[in-house]
Amino acid sequence: MTHQNFTRILPGLLTAVVALAFAFAIHAAVPALPAMTLAVVLGLLAANFPGTAVWTAGRARPGLDFAGKHLMRGGIVLLGLKVSLSDVLGLGWLALLLITAVVVASFAGTYGISRLFRLPSDTALLIATGFSICGASAIGAMAAVRRIRHRDTVLPVALVTLCGTLAIGVLPLLVHPLQLSTEAFGAWTGASVHDVGQVVATAQTAGPAALALAVVVKLTRVILLAPMVALAGAEQRIRHRREADGDGGPAAGKPPLVPLFVVGFITMVALRSSGWLSSGWLEAAAGLQDVLLGAALFGLGSAVRIRTLLHTGARAVLAAFAAWVLIAVLGLAAALLIVR
């Protein structure tokens, strides 16, 4: 990176760091509010308050876009250090099959609902990926492998944050009406809530047993990010080759079969599963991951203009709520089978 480029992105990066400090401070005061969700919300506020909107849309924009794209990929790589294969396999094969089925059905159902509401195919793909796997991180990974424009990830990230935040308030209220055990609630949360931080915020309301199971179930969904993105990359590569053949010559910029950050994610999963890293290293990596993803999410949130969203995103909001209900039902069915 040249000095000129660094100078260009520095104001936006510093803005993201300051906003992230506020997000962590609020989270420390109110632990039920996930820091990553707060980062998106602060980005939305910064983009829509008259005093800060000019800054986020102007001088800070290059750095915020850099954070939303490149820091997101770094955060996805480090996300792999949270996944231990021994913990995942400890759920048992039936649970693994059920969780995989929920992810596949959620992806297909959300994509179908999005298309039914006449959303563009790229938007539907990103919403389906974020809702079915791990929120904004999955959206960033899919956008990268399918070469979807950065600005087209803004709406899906806003929707997955909105619905994930809704789950924090709604799911605990349904424990008694549905007569769920602590373990069933934990499994339901892990199988249906989008972002890891949102899962923790939701499951902890039922105690440590629910939280422990919710996190393992959720991380099992996270590990499916790698094969899903790899399949999307392979499909993109095949399409790219067909287009090149149709044009009668090789196409420039052929997409990689598996992006480097996905390889990094898989490597981090293997490293965590090996047991070589001490708890101190894992805690340090988790802190760095929160910083990278938090800055990225603030950058994405700061690109959302509420007025534009209300005019153009009404169908997307309805589609997201329908998909949220579908995934909650699928996750509940799987959870009851897992803990029976």
Proportion in helices = over 70%
Strand content: under 5%
Residue windows where pLDDT falls under 50 for at least 5 positions: none
User: What general outline do the C-alpha atoms trace?
Assistant: globular
Distance between the termini: 55 Å
Number of helical runs?
A: 17
Features:
340 residues; mainly alpha
Question: How does this model look, in words?
Answer:
The chain is mainly α and 340 residues long. Helix content is 78%, strand content 0%. It has 17 helices and no strands. It is globular, with a radius of gyration of 20 Å. The model has no long low-confidence stretch (mean pLDDT 89).
Give a nutshell description of this structure:
By secondary structure, the protein is mainly α. The protein has 17 helices and no strands. It has helices at 3-29, 35-48, 50-57, 61-79, 85-89, 93-116, 121-132, 136-145, 154-170, 182-192, 196-203, 208-223, 225-247, 260-274, 279-301, 306-312, 314-339.
Write the layout of secondary structure elements.
Elements: H1 3-29, H2 35-48, H3 50-57, H4 61-79, H5 85-89, H6 93-116, H7 121-132, H8 136-145, H9 154-170, H10 182-192, H11 196-203, H12 208-223, H13 225-247, H14 260-274, H15 279-301, H16 306-312, H17 314-339
Helix pairs in contact: 1-2, 1-4, 1-15, 2-3, 2-15, 4-8, 4-14, 4-15, 6-7, 6-17, 7-8, 7-9, 7-17, 8-13, 9-11, 9-17, 10-11, 10-12, 10-17, 11-12
